[in-house]
User: What shape does this take?
Amino acid sequence: MSRGLNKVMIIGNLGRDPELRYTSSGKPYVTFSVATSRSWVTSAGDHREATEWFNVVAWGNLAEICNRFLRKASRVYIEGYLQTRNWEDNDGRRHYRTEVVTNEMLILDSRTHDEYSDVATENLDEEPDLPF
Assistant: This one.
């Protein structure tokens, strides 16, 4: 059997604040959208730009990190895979949604890095509980 590859890497900006939710079993997940832009010059010399929107979902600890540190307009690197879900609504219509399920997220905003550094160092004033 041959192997396939389903890997997505995007760099863009959040279109909305992350929304943290929990499954019925208590597992956290977060959803948000990321916009990426590309530009090109046509054969006539006109400059064009297009924006593509991606629906992103993160699970577990990564979901909680995304919820804590990301906000609308945050610049991020997202790595994961594409997954299409489908469901039927109350009227019997089938719906489809393709998402990037992320397994890695890097914050590219310098503002967010500063906030993260503050959080990472907020407990440095306390003496660690050392066993010796």
Observations:
- The beta strands are 8-14, 19-22, 28-41, 47-59, 75-88, 94-107.
